[in-house]
Every structure is written in structure tokens, then in C-alpha cells.
Amino acid sequence: MIADTNRSPFAKAHMLSAQVRQEGGIIGRRRHSAETSMIPHLLDIFSDPNSFFHALENFRIAAGESDGEFRGNVYGDGDFYKLLEGMVLFGQDISAYASLIERAQEQDGYISTKQIIASRKGQMVRHADQDDFEEYNFGHLFTLTAAACRMGQGETLLRVSKKAADYLYNRYLMALKDKKAMSAVCPSHYMGLAELYRLTGEEKYLSALKAALELRKYVVNGTDDNQDEIPLYEQREMRGHAVRATYLYAGAADLCLETGDRALEEVLLSCWDDMVNKKMYITGGLGALYTGASPFGDLINAKRVHQAFGYEYQLPNITAYNETCASLGGIMWASRMFQLFPDSKYIDFIERAAYNLAFAAVSPDGNKYFYENMLRRTKEVGYFLMWPRERSDTFKCFCCPTNLSRFMAHLPQYAFFCGDDVLYTGLYMPCKAHISLKNGAEFDIEEVTDYPWDGRVSFRISACNGVPFRLLARVPAFEGGGFKELDINDPAIEFDMTPRLIRAHAKLEENESSVCVMRGPVVYCAEMEDLSGLYLSSNAEFTSGRADLAGESVVVLKTKGWRLDSTPSNLYEEVGGAALVPEEISLIPYFEWDNSGFKEMRIWIPVRYDVK
Ligand SMILES: [Zn+2]
């Protein structure tokens, strides 16, 4: 379970209390890779005292068990907690790490290693710099604790987290009295405090969440970058840093699940629509911009944004920023929105971002990662982009890989959601679960499918206690959306997996006269040495077949397309006699790209339309 809303008064759907057992399919393969390869690999990196990241060593120094200086990222504690969350959810023993974290904690509950190490040298540097990510570190500790408690490993961490949350609670009450606030960046602690409240039932943690959000209105000199230029309750569109935004709104959704705050729900609904209808990539990527001025500023008071949402329909492909964590934050927000408003469109987002962003952000062996997720790669760009254009073993800002590791552990819990007498299907995957609904219905369910390669999904229901329930199968957006009630005696559903050509809104300039190929929820791309001048036909017919790519069995596509016999090399050139010649085009699932050398890749491909 990722957010336990079973007792949340305003949740209309909940995640399952029971673990979903999942094996097989592409989801199973990616999870196996995460458990057996990605997590050990990341643990090695975070444990190595000589590595840049220095995360475990920072805890040892903070605990007084090793000498040295704080090194690595100020948000390294939080990233380490995310790794531990993945480990504990995969059933791995984290007790030695939990004890170390407890030994590193200050008497008053404070816990963030950079500041603790400084205080041991007589320097008081707590809460001096917003960009020290202290509350981000607290937040991921709380979320880790909730996961550990569910897996029977939470005793030590719960002591640590309660002390830490008490510290935040007292700090926030004081700040509210003084009407003085500094917004935290990447506010994972909103979700974390909500989960700690649900775990312990202690009202003060809900109060701390309320206070943390209320304090945002006392921020002076706020910026779009941190979503505090405009008061939270007046926000209606996605602005600024995409991870900060999705973490903020996921935490705000958690508050709505507990308090039913209608005004805040309006904020969330409006921002969500703005995001998915005007600012989201077809991959589920969020945050188009690298670094610059907020497009929503004015001429004189332009303020910096980075890793941020741009204007409506401003979605460039080569320079798409799309931090992996932003889409993972979007998934966390979507899962909470579904629990507030059980609409299949929120699961569609989770599905889109899982297959086309999260799976693309990590290599099939689990050991290489994208921080930013481009939709097009050309061999030469002619300008500097701050992130590598191929997956890397490590990079300095290493927040995304450990976020991916816990996401892979979370995946089975997106298979089902439940209402009082309803079981909703979420992401389709082969799995088994024991279901216990609020109306008393209990049964075992097994899901059998080769989705997303095959459109058939069937269920086997057994050990039913006779209390009636409904099984509502999600109809993906590509099949019209909504839910379809299945016959409990023969529950099955089938979706059309014929490849589809997708075009973008006319205002999305970069994709004008281009199309993207999708099959089911999977976005396809062309990946070749040279993609210049490639065209698809608007009436393209595809042949599909299974292929083994990087050790994974996937469906690949072929179609007859075209290529320009010359492409311009100057900024502007006469067309001359340029003409199209036929060419066969192969397409692979986008999440399998960058596994076969440094080639060109594109998702959006120019299209040659028929004439009526
Ligand atoms: Zn990240």
C-alpha cells in the first residue's frame, strides 16, 4: 500500500490493505530487475564512503561512529530513505539501517545529516537555507516508516519518525504564531505527515500537515518555481518546478482525503486538467523546461524557474526536460486523485507514465538511468544540455534512481482499488490478491493477462464468502475510458490493440504535421543511425511481431513510410527538387530505446497525409 486511506473519511476508493502478489509480464520483469539488480547496485553506490553520494557515511558521521565531513547531496538522506523503502517493500532486511538512523537523530527529534554533522562541530545551521531540503529528508523518512510498518519492520523507524514529526509540529505551531514561513522545496513531507497520521491516528500529525500548507501563505518573495508566488488556494494551473508541484498537490490531495476541503479540491481539479490537457508530454513526462525565467512572470519582475512547466502547449522534443521524479510525483498525485474522485482518467495517467516514462528512465538491467527524458535524440544538437543524452550509471543529482526503485516495488499495489462493495481494476498485470471489501465481501482474485502486448484480461475469483460485490474493469482511455462491470461468473475483458496514429493539438508547434504511434498504452519510437527526413503515412498499416529487445519480450512494429532524399543543412533553404522515396520503418516501444548504442530516436514523426 502506498497511501492507506482505508479510514480516511473523504476517500471514495482505497488501495488494498493486502499485498498484491505479482509475477510475470513486463511489469514483473522490471520489478525483478529492480529487486535483484537495481537495488543492490544503488545500495553499493549509497554505501560507498568514497563515492560522491556518501549517504550511509553521512549517517555514520552524524551518529558519531565515523569521522569526516558531510559530503554528497543535501537531499541524500531522503534519497537513501527512498532506496530503503524499495528494499523493505521487496522484503529485504533494513534493520541495521533503521538502527543507524535512530543513532544519528538529535535528542529533539531533528534529523538531517548535513545539519547534525555541522552541529557536532558547534555550528547551528538548521533551517537556514531552503535549498538544504531538510523537510524533504523528513518526508521520505515518514513514508519509509509507513512502508516498513506494513512490512513488519517499522518499530525503530516509527520511534524515529514520531520524534521527528513532533519536532516539525512544534516548529510549525511556532511559525504560525509568528506568521513567518519559508516554504520547503520538493515537499515530500506533506504526503509523509499524512501517512504518519494514518499510521498512528495521532491528530497532531494531521495538524502538522494543515499547518505546513497554511504556512505557505506567509512566504515572502515566493516564486512560481516553488509554487508560492500565488497562494495555494488561488492556484489554477501548473507552474514552476514539476517535482515540487506534483509533491505539493499530492500532499494537498492527502489533506483533502482527510478533511474534505472543497476549496482545495477545486485547486487540484483545475491544476490536474491544466497539466494533462496542456502541459503533459505523450509519455506522461512533466516539466518541459530546463532553466530560465518563469513564462508567467512579467517583463520587469521575471523570476527564475528550473526543471519546470512551460506555457500551455510548449512541449519541445529534443530539449524536453521531464525529470523522472516529476512523473513519479505525478503518479503519486494521480493515485490520490483517484481515491478522491474514482475516475479512470487518473489510472490512465499512472499507466501512461509507468510504461512510457518510468520504464524508459531505467535500463532493463536496472543499472543505468535517465534524469531527464527527451522525446527525440539527434546525433548533434549543437548546444549544451546539462544532462547526458544517454542513460548513465550515476549522475550528481541522483534523486530519480532511488525514486524508481521504490516505484517498482509499489507497482503491484496499483493493480486494484476498492470501494465499499466494488473492486476496481487499475493497472493490468498478472497478479493475485486476497480482497476484503468494507461490505464484508471476501474473495481471492487472480488476474491473467499478457497486457500491454495482448488486449485480453481475465480474472479467476475463488474462495468467495458469498457477500455480493461488483467488479469494475477500467476501460483505458484509448478504448473510451470509464469502467465496465464484469460478470462475476466469467470475468474477462478485451481491448483493441491495433496500432494507432496520434496527432497533437494544433497549438503544439513542435508536433505540427507529425504523428506518434501508440499500441495500447505503449508509445512507440523510431531508433536508427539517421532519422533525418523520415515520414509516416497517415493511412499507415502496421505489421506487428514479438521480438527480444535487451532481454525483454515486446511487440515491435513495421510499416511502409517515406524519406526525403535531401534534408536542409542551413537555417533556411529553398526546397529545390526534394522528394520523398519509400522506406520501411521499424518502431519499438519507447521504453526500450537507448539500449543498442547511440542512435537517433524520435517519437513524433512527420506524416504525409492523403488527399481527399
Ligand atoms: Zn529526480
Keywords, separated by commas or semicolons:
binds zinc ion, 19% strand, 3 domains, 23 strands, Glycosyltransferase, six-stranded mixed beta barrel, 34% helix, 612 residues
Description of the structure:
- There is one protein chain.
- The protein has 612 residues and is of the alpha+beta class.
- The protein has helices at 25-47, 55-62, 76-89, 95-104, 113-120, 134-150, 155-178, 188-200, 203-215, 242-259, 262-279, 324-340, 344-358, 399-410, and strands spanning 14-15, 21-22, 240-241, 289-293, 304-309, 376-377, 416-418, 422-425, 431-436, 442-449, 456-462, 470-474, 483-486, 492-494, 500-502, 514-519, 522-528, 534-537, 542-549, 552-564, 580-589, 600-602, 605-608.
- The protein folds into 3 domains: 14-414, Glycosyltransferase; 418-494, no CATH class; 500-608, no CATH class.
- The chain has a 6-stranded mixed barrel. The chain has a 5-stranded mixed sheet with strand order 1-7-8-12-13, with no helix packed on it. Strands 2-9-10-11-14 form a 5-stranded antiparallel sheet.
- A hairpin with a 2-residue loop joins β16 and β17.
- α6 runs parallel beside α8 (188-200), α7 (155-178) packs across α9 and α12 packs antiparallel against α13.
- The model has no long low-confidence stretch (mean pLDDT 96).
- Zinc ion is lined by residues 323-325, 399-400, 403.
